[in-house]
Structures are given as structure tokens and as C-alpha cells.
Amino acid sequence: MKDIFGKAILDYQQGNYTEDILTETSISEEDVLPVPYLFRGYDQMPEIEQKALELCKGHVLDIGCGAGSHALYLQEERKLKVSAIDISEGAIKACKKRGITDARHTDIQQLQNEKFDTLLLLMNGAGMCGYLKNITSFLQHLRSILNKGGQILLDSSDIIYMYDEDEEGGKWIPADMEYYGELEFRMSYKGEKSDPFPWLYIDYNTLQNAAVANGFNCELILEGEHYDYLARLQPVE
């Protein structure tokens, strides 16, 4: 898979920033993801991200760390032990250049035989599930790398608002969709397009049901202004 994300991040860091990342999904038009936003400081982060960083404890694993802004804050300001992982090689190179001590180019599913106190999945980190049918195996894997008393902090959005309403106030959901939060996502940058990939937006009730079914307590920590939310999952001991 082309590393569109990593290329844009490295360009920005090396002073070659001339344009932003373009994103599009199977249900939305092309949108702009400003590359500088990926390098934001704590003060520029939305309240949901700030709250998640406040709740981090112990050894933190930042999953899908991107340019490393969350990990860097936790390492430098909170003085926590942080490991940062991403499937983007370019993103991890950027993290290392920014001074993140433990930054690894790897997939969360490949991580074995380690334990963490906080698993952090921000910027819709649950999206890496791809499909709702994968949520059980995803949560079970996360549980396997949590220390006793550990926690998962993740944010996502309920995107039902993006679908058209019928005359009775119901929503038009395509018949071929298993779940309305399953999208096909694509990125482009400097004339280069990524292959399409699945991405999951999961509403809180669906997440809570999946969490309980897999032995977690699920707590709604904060709701944002754009149908987004922060949740904390903790294994039932």
C-alpha cells in the first residue's frame, strides 16, 4: 500500500510542505486534511483528545500514532513511558526525528508478548478494524496486551447524520451495507492516490454492546460537538 500519509508528514517536517492531503470516502465528497494539523500541540487539540491525554497512565501504547503529537506530549509533558506504533513507515520516521524514544513501524495485530497500562486510539482509532465484524477479534487482541487494571481510550463518531432522511424521518442506508459506519476510504497527495481501504466509524451504543460482549466495562467519557465521543474500556477482572 502506498504510504501517502507518511510522505506528506515527512515532507512537512523536512520543509517541503506545499499542499495538503485530500481524503474521500464512499459516502462523501473530497475533503482536505491539513498536514500541519498532524503536528498540532496540546493547545490546538480538540477537547476529546486533551481529555484522553489527561487520562493516560503507566506505560502507554499510542496505536496509529501518525506524526506523533499525542505520544510526544505524553513523553515530554506528562513524563510517561510511551511506545508509538503506526503502519506508515514515513510517520514512524517522523516520530523518531521528533524525539519519540520508542517508535515502531508495525501493525497492532503483530504486537505480541508485551503489556501496557493504557492503549490509546485517537483520531477515530477504532477505524482500523475496517468492518464491524472484526470488532470482537480486535478487542480480544487489545485485551491480550493490557496489564491488569489497564484501560483502552478511544474516540469515534456516529456518522448516521451523513445519510439522507426519508419523509418519515428515517435514514436511507444502502441495502448492501452491513453497518452504516463502514466506509471505503482513500487518500491522495501530490498527484498520488492510495488504494481504497475500509475504515470503521462506530456509534457509542454499538461499541458498548461489543465491549460488554467481550468482557469490558465501557464508559462514555466525553461527547464532542460533531457526533464524536471519547470512551474508556476496562476489562472486567
How would you describe what is shown here?
The structure is a single chain. The protein is α/β, with parallel strands linked by helices and 237 residues long. It has a single domain, classed as Vaccinia Virus protein VP39 (Rossmann fold, 3-Layer(aba) Sandwich), CATH 3.40.50. 24% of the residues lie in helices and 30% in strands. The protein is built from six helices and twelve strands. The chain has helices at residues 4-13, 47-55, 69-76, 89-97, 135-144, 204-213; strands at 21-25, 28-33, 60-63, 82-86, 102-105, 116-121, 146-157, 182-189, 192-193, 197-200, 216-223, 228-235. β8 (182-189) and β9 (192-193) form a beta hairpin. α1 runs parallel beside α4. The longest helix is centred in the first third of the chain and has 10 residues, at 4-13. The chain is globular. The relative contact order is 0.17. The mean pLDDT is 95.
